Amino acid sequence: MKYNALITNNEKIAKDIYELTLELDSDCKPGQFININVNRPDLLLRRPISISDYENNRLKVIYRTVGEGTKCLSKISIGNKLDVLSPLGNGFPLVKGKNVLIVGCGMGVAPMLYLAKELSKDNNLTIILAYQKKELSYLTQAFDNLGNVIITTDDGSIGYKGNVLDYLKENKLNFDVLYACGPMIVLKNLDLKYRDIKEGYLSFESRMACGIGACYGCVINTKNGLKRVCKDGPIFKLGEVTYD
Ligand SMILES: Cc1cc2nc3c(=O)[nH]c(=O)nc-3n(C[C@H](O)[C@H](O)[C@H](O)COP(=O)(O)OP(=O)(O)OC[C@H]3O[C@@H](n4cnc5c(N)ncnc54)[C@H](O)[C@@H]3O)c2cc1C
Ligand code: FES
Questions:
Q1: What beta strand segments (E) does 40-139 contain?
Q2: Distances in Å between the alpha carbon of 10 and those of 113, 147, 227?
Q3: Pocket of ligand 1 contains residue 19 by CB under 6 Å
Q4: What is the CATH number of the domain that holds 116?
Q5: Is 228 in the pocket of ligand 2 (CB under 6 A)?
Q6: Which of 19, 98, 127, 143 has the fewest Cβ atoms nearer than 10 Å?
Q7: Neighbours of 172 (CB within 10 A)
Q8: pLDDT tens for each residue of 153-168
Q9: Which regions of the chain does DSSP assign to beta strands (E)?
Q10: For the chain, what is the domain count?
Q11: Looking at the domain assignment, is residue 226 inside a domain?
Q12: Does residue 94 lie in a domain region?
């Protein structure tokens, strides 16, 4: 659905990372995303950003300024309205009564907050928040009451020194279901490690055009053929995506 949503917050929370809050009455669930028109005539395509939190008609997203679109978004002030499509994508299936491992890496931490809030109602959570370094970390305390939180950084500036895959090699965690979001290389490694032994759900990214399933510009290879990340995903089961 298309909204003209009021911006109630758009603030920097870490190096090149912003949290945007919109007033929006949208029936959304964890793992879904919104598609934002950044309101510059030469930037025709909307920018997809995951829903990081949703409560009382306040929808939050967290984005990193990597190019023209996200830089333009970071300059839009509170009080303006933003043209967004919401909610898009399939979202994470929510399990009950399980030991759950949540892995968020880099910007992949953002969608895990809303997910962890929902899953913590019915499950025991272990949550790994993985960053390159301290200055790129955010939401480090937001998960504190939701489960057992482990922080990793590649350079050891906070938490465990090493990446999430190193951490999982060194530490045997007891879990039934995996949820992860992060760079493709991390998702691929988690998928290959756990696809035959665990239930799990991974959130993938792809360059998008329409964002609503019409153009097939965002397809990904799966064992059931090409699938649209925007419509059939962005969440795919462990073992569903093929990488060669
Ligand atoms: C389903 C989905 C959810 C996303 N959620 C988030 C989020 O929560 N927070 C966040 O910061 N970003 C998220 N992204 C990525 C975000 O959409 C891009 O960073 C953004 O569109 C870049 O726009 P830009 O105009 O600033 O950069 P551009 O000028 O378009 O590109 C700048 C750089 O970013 C890369 N890039 C652009 N789009 C993507 C993409 N879709 N996937 C991977 N790399 C891309 C380009 O290759 C280029 O290197 C998500 C993407 C998808 C598909
Ligand atoms: S972006 Fe058009 S089908 Fe996914």
A1: 47-50, 53-55, 58-64, 81-88, 99-105, 124-131
A2: 18, 28, 33
A3: no
A4: 3.40.50.80
A5: yes
A6: 98
A7: 6
A8: 999 999 999 999 999 9
A9: 2-14, 17-23, 33-37, 47-50, 53-55, 58-64, 81-88, 99-105, 124-131, 148-153, 160-161, 177-181, 199-203, 219-222, 225-228, 235-237
A10: 2
A11: no
A12: no
Tokens of 187: 């998702």
pTM: 0.96
User: Which structural domain range is residue 170 located in?
Assistant: 99-203
CB within 8 Å of 139: residues ≥ 6 apart? 13, 52, 62, 109, 110, 113, 129
- Cα 215 to ligand 2 centre (Å): 5
Q: Do the domain assignments include residue 60?
A: yes
In a domain, 73, yes or no: yes
Residues 107 and 56 in one domain: no
Atom 6, ligand 1: residue with shortest CA distance: 49
Q: Are residues 71 and 112 both part of a single domain?
A: no
